[in-house]
Design goal:
This protein is an alpha/beta fold. The protein is 24% helix and 20% strand. It has a domain of 76 residues.
């Protein structure tokens, strides 16, 4: 996968490309989860950490990635036993299994679903 830097939507001959948007790209990882799935999700996140950014700390990982968990069982606080979970975004609504991520909220992310 190739990453392209963010640029303004317009351009002309005199446009100075050094003024392009200076937003650091992040990667978004999303899962729809239940508490019983926590060990499988933990393994998946740890593999992602190892494959993407091996030999760096978890804090450096969290600067490059945003982990978003959609909880369909309402149990979010129990996930705190996992180290990376404390830096994740938890969204919960009881009996909700369908989610929509608004494009404006993820426009600066590359997606891993």
């Amino acid at each position: 996968m190739q990453e392209f830097p963010l640029r303004h939507a317009f351009s002309h001959a005199r446009y100075d490309f050094t003024q392009d948007l200076q937003i650091k790209q992040k990667h978004l990882v999303t899962f729809s989860v239940g508490y019983d799935m926590r060990m499988n999700i933990d393994i998946a996140i740890k593999k992602l950490i190892f494959l993407s950014v091996s030999k760096i700390s978890l804090s450096q990982f969290s600067e490059n990635f945003t982990i978003l968990l959609f909880h369909y069982d309402g149990r979010t606080s129990e996930w705190d036993e996992l180290e990376w979970s404390k830096k994740a975004i938890h969204v919960s609504a009881i009996k909700q299994t369908k989610w929509c991520v608004d494009p404006d909220s993820i426009s600066q992310h590359l997606l891993f679903v």
